[in-house]
Amino acid sequence: NGLNMATQNGLEIVSCSACSTLRGVTARGGDVILIGEENLRRVVPEIRNIKCGVLFLQSARSDCALSLNENCDSAVRRDMWRIFEKLSECDGDVAALLARSPLAIPVSNGKLVTGTWQGVYAICHAGCGPLKISSLLVRSLVPGPGRVVVDAGKRGVADVSSAVKPAVGDATEGGDAVVVALLLHTSASVTVDAQGEGLEEDLSRVVPESWNSFLEHTYEGDDDMPGHAKSTLVGANTIIVGSSTRRLWLCEHRNVGGWGGGHQRKIALRVVYTSPGRRVRSVDGKAARGCVDISGVVRAAAGDAPAVLVCPVDPGTTVTQTGLASGRMSEALQALWARTGVTSGVVGPALVGDYVMVWKDAARSDNIIWTNFTAAPLVPEVHVIPFA
């Protein structure tokens, strides 16, 4: 555990811990745990002093992932485990790869900004013992843009960049800012890399509605629990790097939208001005439709920063932190595509990872893997943005 107080351009680092134990929360293999905000406040008590900021969270174990989803019905958590067990064929590292982690949660007036029915999940695939997390809490010295309301119109993928742009101003045009976007719902998702309108169709092959035959949370129709699972697979939050050309996409997984709100969805936003980042390239040459371990170049670029944000540069590419070696990860993804019959170039970028956080003193020594889902041979390249 550690505390790092520092101020950089428009940002104050309030606390940073590579590994903290959540008291009273035990990670059991084959379990999905709801982590209450009070548990997070015990390990990051400074939350109460933050008027406008962001809390970054990640599991300190490679076989456990964090996600945001339904905080009310425990059947969702039981069903979530059934779905991940089936998708991963009981491989803990593969299951953790598919669940979105880390999380970036806006903080406002001493409270986490989440949806009414949202809570933090720990999806534990193996092992037993106290749950450990890495955390970084930053205070934004620039007033936050708050939230926007967008309309997906129908089930499918919608570009909502134009709705978000007025709220964040020129933050997406500068190289020293990142925009944190958190969707305040549990049956839709957001991504910066939707490679075509076929995404929802492919996700319905990954989590077919025929699986309702062994699921419990089916009260609102055939698209109910599959919609929750897709939200965790794609993720309810993402990050846009100011110097990138990425757009923000809303993925609507329900035929009639959210409970009582239709296809209108709320997105909480935060602009964080950071130290200047670097675009880092791997020296391993170009790769098409493959995985490359970029751990060495990322950690070298991170230097002594207590934590860094890493985001892919090119559309159709992803970055993730995993206990799997690059070859094993490639094999696992190919097996998933073969089982589900999806187009990897469409579903892969949304499913695998928009960004990762790397803590300098983290107990986990995972591989940082860049993946190219396009047919074009590309040099692995990522943004490395230090919080220092």
Q: What is the structural class?
A: alpha+beta
In the sheet with the most strands, the strands line up as 1-2-9-4-6-7
- Residues in helices, as a percent range: 10-25%
How many DSSP-defined strands? Answer: 23
Number of helices: 9
The general outline is: globular
Distance between the termini: 16 Å
Question: What does the model show?
Answer:
By secondary structure, the chain is of the alpha+beta class. It is 23% helix and 38% strand. It has helices at 37-43, 74-88, 92-98, 161-168, 199-206, 224-234, 295-302, 326-340, 344-352; strands at 6-8, 11-28, 31-35, 52-59, 64-70, 103-108, 111-112, 118-124, 128-140, 146-151, 156-159, 177-183, 188-191, 237-241, 249-252, 264-273, 278-281, 290-293, 307-312, 317-322, 356-359, 367-372, 381-387. The protein has a 6-stranded antiparallel beta sheet with strand order 1-2-9-4-6-7. Strands 10-16-12-14 form a 4-stranded antiparallel beta sheet, with helices on one face. Strands 17-23-19-21 form a 4-stranded antiparallel beta sheet, covered by helices on one side. A hairpin with a 2-residue loop joins strand 6 (103-108) and strand 7 (111-112). Helix 2 packs across helix 3. The radius of gyration is 19 Å and the shape is globular. It starts with 5 loop residues before the first strand and ends with a strand. 56% of the residues are buried. Residues 1-7 have low confidence and may be disordered.
